[in-house]
From TrEMBL:
This is NusG domain II-containing protein. Pfam families: NusG_II (PF07009).
């Protein structure tokens, strides 16, 4: 038998989850740099606020990275799944685009001293 108290508790937990999610989303800062990793090694770093188009040559293929209006996205790639193109635009700290076939990660980072796990190597 479901008690009224249980329902209130469940609703409270759901509400708490929504609030936490909102806080996390708001906590995401607009990034300032786009860092390119191939096979977990940094191969490039670009300013997110400077519009540019970069051809990223990996061991497995090519990705075309476009940086425009503070957003980074892949416009072209010769990987078989094209998932990296479908991932769309990223602009906030911690957001990333992954191209699994090319072992490529494109990650947005801020300049507030926050370091990624890769920086510690
Ligand atoms: Zn891809």
């Amino acid at each position: 038998m479901i008690k009224k108290r249980d329902i209130i508790l469940a609703l409270g937990l759901i509400l708490l989850g929504i609030v936490c999610y909102g806080v996390i989303r708001l906590g995401q800062k607009k990034g300032s740099q786009v860092i390119i990793y191939e096979d977990q090694k940094e191969i490039g770093r670009y300013d997110l606020n400077t519009d540019t188009t970069k051809e990223i040559q990996t061991a497995k293929g090519i990705n075309i990275l476009e940086i425009k209006n503070g957003m980074a996205y892949v416009t072209e790639a010769d990987c078989p799944d094209q998932v990296c193109i479908r991932m769309g635009k990223i602009s906030k700290t911690g957001e990333n685009i992954v191209c699994l076939p090319h072992k490529l990660v494109i990650q947005v980072e801020g300049d507030d001293g926050q370091k990624s796990e890769y920086d510690n190597r």
